[in-house]
Each structure stands twice: as structure tokens, then as C-alpha cells.
Amino acid sequence: MTDAPWSGDASSLVDAFRAGDRSPVEELDATIAAIGASDLNCFSLVDADRARAAAANADLSKPFGGVPTGIKELEAVAGWPQTEASLVFRDRIATYTTTNVTRLLDRGGAVPVGQTTASEFGGLNVSVTKLNGVTHNPWRHGRTVGGSSAGSAAAVAGGLVSLATGGDGGGSIRIPAGYTGLLGMKGTFGRIPRSPNAFMRPNTVVLGNLARSVRDAARYYDVCSGYDPADPSSLPEHPNFEAGLGTHDLAGKRVAIIPTLSGVTLEPGVEEQLRAEAAALIASTGMVQVDIELSVPNLAAQWMMGNLATLLADLGDHWPGCASEMTSEVAAGLFMSQSLYNLRTAAVAEALRVQANEAMAAAFREVDFVISATNPGPAFKAEAATSSETASFLDWAKSNAAATYAFRSLLFATRLASVVAPKLPSVLLDRVGQMFPDLVNMGGLTIISNIYGNPAVSIPAGTVDGLPVGMQVLTRHHADELLFDVALAVERERPWPLVAPRGAPVPAGV
After folding, report:
1. Distances (CA, A) of 465 to 116, 270, 496
2. Distance between CA atoms of 362 and 296, rounded to whole angstroms?
3. Contact (Cβ atoms closer than 8 angstroms) between residue 107 and residue 193
């Protein structure tokens, strides 16, 4: 009888199944019981019947054969709700399954337990929605998990499942991984197909997972990556990531440590912890630290504006009548985008993207890796919209009915004024970013790799004030395997807890 879910990594759970030490059905029963008893609020749906059928027929020869797995609720699974974490679509049922999930279940043999919570439409880096309420951090109840892959991170770090899917359009895998002490890998853009029905604009979203170990993440990429014709941006299959672990010589590789990438302000203790972890990594691998100039614009505001075009397409005729059903921040962002995003704003955003691409390209001509923080600080209050402890722009905009009306009236006036002064929206957008840095700090460290499309990974880097922080490592396009080996070097030298330490931590790889 299995009393509690597996606390090691998913790969070792497969080994235990094959050895006859555990069974998929018993593991699933323990998982479902643990989810029911959990206070993390990280599953929005548990499909026990489907999961039990899959567990009973699990093919243990497959890479994740029999492993109970959480599916982020922004990914469609035929027959399951397709809410996108929003009240707007609370009654919609998916009629298809994404390529990523299909591969995970068919090629990988994973057992789909249910849907993990996400931020509404993946639009915020927090873990609270009107549909699902607040998802809590297993390291400290009452603290955020980040987003948008909030439930997946909480479920894996909280010991409920050893594997869960995620997506990253501006940091949505790396941010929650950093807040919960997990490995969060964002591959080169197109590594895992986003089909079917994949929006092309703004070419920043990648798919992946939240992992307890490096080999779990590498195995996931082996299972789910590779070209699919319904996603023309998807890349050809890559040689085996898991088999290649540990085969790349990191000695002599050049690395730059730039903690405050994009000029994001870090909270006390984060830079010191990051530099200590980076120094230990460099010493253990024989890499060479070099100093470079890397000045990239913070594109958080422009990224938000561009991404919301796809949200408008998704909402269709529901907008703007559905605004009251949406998370206040998402609705405010959409109103803001409609008023501030015009051809001139788009031109400024494109110019900034070119500037960012050129700066990143120049950096990777000089170094193999760039190391930065993943998040500005450790996990903040779970109910908060941003990491700022002071009142934010969005706090004011949603504070009461009068403020909301004033906010929308101001945006409408701006929209009219921009007809005769097309530069006004860009000027106002810059000004808002200066006045309310919380709008651009959240995700400011991670977004650059979505804009540029290069791979980046958040590796557990110890704790600050008892909460996890992440060390983000970036490399050039198509060198994903090098990031796996950098993470492996950390895992071997300084193993991290695979689950939040409510009990004794389990060494990595066990």
C-alpha cells in the first residue's frame, strides 16, 4: 500500500514501477488522496476515472509510463474544461488535445490526473484568479507561486505529482520554478510545438514543464519536442537530450554574471545569494567569468501590449461585455492596450525588439552563458498582483468604481488624442513604466529570452528569508543541451530539495 505520493523525481518513479516496488494504480490513489487533502489549491480539475483507466493500462516501457501528471489548464485536453482560467469560458469544453499533451500521454505514457491552476489567459505572473481563487506556495502558505504555471509548480514542489506541464510566454515556467525551488527550462523558441490553433503573434510562447530534476526536464523534451506542420515555427527533432546529459565539457566556457538583467531592481539578499551560487558553479565546472557590457531594454510593457492582441482575438464578441468577469488586472491591461497600442506604438516596440536582439547577439559573440536572477525577490503575498509592497498603478485603477471609470475615461481620451498626436501612447507608456516600476519589474528578468527566443533555465539557488530563489542561465539559440548540463553541474554539486521541506528533503536524482 502506497501511503503518500512519490517524493523523488519522475524518472526514479518509473524505475520503481519497473522494479515492482510501486504500482501506477497505487501511486495514483495516493496522489488523488493527497490532492484532496492539500491546502495549496493547485488543481482546478481532477479526473479520477480517466486517470485510473490510464494507470491500470500503463505501459511501463515508455519514458513516463504510469507517472501521475498535472496538465496546465491553459492547454486543451479533449473532454476537459477549456476555461483558460477565466470565468468568461467557464462552460466551454475542449474538443481537441494539444500536440504537446498528446505526445506526453501517447509517446511518454504519462497518466493525466487533472488540470493545474494558471493565471487568467496566462496574462499575469501571479497565482490568483476569479475562477479558481488563490494558489499557495508549498514552501510557505500565503505566498505566491508566481505564474502563469502556478498550479503546476505548486503541485510538483508540494509533493502531489512529480511532473506537470507548463508554458512560458514571458517567464511563466521560470518564474514559478524560481519561487518554488524547481527546475524551469525554457527551450529555444519552437522546440516544442504549440499546435493546433497556435497564434503566431508575438512569437514568444514556448511549452515545457516544471521539474524536480534535470533528467526529468531533459526526458520531457525528448518526448514532446520535434516539428509539427500545424505549428510552422516548430523545430526539427533534436538528438536525445537525456542521453546527452553530462557529455558536454563546460571547462573554459565563458560566462558573464549580470544579476539585474534589463535593469530590474533586486530585493535585499538576492544578488548576494546569486553571486555566491554563480561563483560555486564556475569553480566546479572550470568555466571562466568575464565582464561584458549588456544593455537591453526592459520590454515588459511592450510585450504585454503585443500579447493582448491575441487575447482580443480569443475573446471575440465576448469583449468588452465580459470585462467584469475577468481578473481586474487583465481587463485593465486590455483596455490600456486598446488605447495605447497604435501603429506608432507598434513601431517603437519593433525597434526595441531589434535593439534587444542585436544586444543579445553581441553578448553571445563574447560569452557562452549569461547568469542573472530569475525573480526580483523571493515569493511575495499570494493575493498580490505584483511584488511591490507599495500601491501600484493597477491597485489605483481597480480600487473602486470611480477610479475604474476615471481610468477608462482617461484611456478613451488618450485614444482620441492619439489620432492627432500618434506619439502620445508611447510617451505615456514609458511614463507609466517610470512611475510604476512594478508593471515592468515582474517578468523583466525573464522576458528578454522570450523576445530573443534563446533558451534559458531557472535553477534552484538556495533561499533568501527561508524562501527559494532561482539562478537564471541564458545561452545562445539551439544550445539547449548546454543549459541542461549547466543545471546538471549544479544538481550534482549542490543538490536541491525535490519537494518543499515539510519533511526531510530528498537528494536530487533519487
Report:
1. 27, 10, 16
2. 11
3. no
The answer, yes or no, to whether the previous bond of 148 is cis (omega within 30 of 0) is yes
User: How would you classify the pairing of strands 467-475 and 206-211?
Assistant: unpaired
End-to-end, the C-alpha distance of the chain in Å comes to 20
Amino acid at residue number 96: Y
Q: Which domain holds residue 191?
A: 10-249+487-493
List pLDDT tens digits, range 100-158: 999 999 999 999 999 999 999 998 889 999 999 999 999 999 999 999 999 999 999 99
**DSSP-derived 3-state class of residue 115:** strand
The model's pLDDT over 370-410, given as tens digits with 9 standing for 90+, comes to: 999 999 999 999 998 765 544 455 555 555 555 555 444 44
195: domain CATH number is 3.90.1300.10
**Is 209 part of a structural domain of the chain?**
yes
Record the cell numbers describing residue 313, joined without a space: 482575438
Question: Which residue, chain included where needed, has cell 524547481?
Answer: 182
Per the structure, how many domains does the chain have? Answer: 1
CB 363 within 8 A of CB 256: yes
Q: Are 494 and 203 in contact (CB under 8 A)?
A: no
The grid cell for 491 is 544538481
Q: How far is CA 168 from the centre of its chain?
A: 4
Report yes or no: 455 and 475 within 8 Å, Cβ to Cβ. yes
The C-alpha atoms of residue 436 and residue 428 are separated, in whole angstroms, by 12
Task: Examine residue 81 and state whether it is found in any structural domain, yes or no.
Answer: yes
Please, which residues have CB within 8 angstroms of residue 247's CB and are 6 or more apart in sequence?
A: 485
| Cell (9 digits) for 216 | 526529468
Distance CA 440, CA 447 (A): 10
Type of residue at 304 = M
Q: Which residue has the cell 536530487?
A: 508
309 within domain boundaries:
no
Q: Does 62 fall in a domain? A: yes
Q: How many residues in total does the chain contain?
A: 510
Q: Record the cell numbers describing residue 360, joined without a space.
A: 543579445
Answer yes or no: is pLDDT of 421 > 80.
no
Say whether 233 sits in a helix, a strand or coil.
coil
Q: Sort strands 128-129 and 133-134 into parallel, antiparallel or unpaired.
A: antiparallel
Q: At what angle do helices 24-37 and 48-56 cross, to 10 degrees?
A: 160
Contact 181, 500 (CB under 8 A): yes
Place of cell 549544479: 490
376 CB contacts (<8 Å, ≥6 apart)?
264, 265, 266, 267, 270, 387, 441, 442, 444, 445
Q: Pairing mode, if any, of strands 111-116 and 43-46?
A: antiparallel
Residue type, 123: G
Neighbours of 246 (CB within 10 A): 12
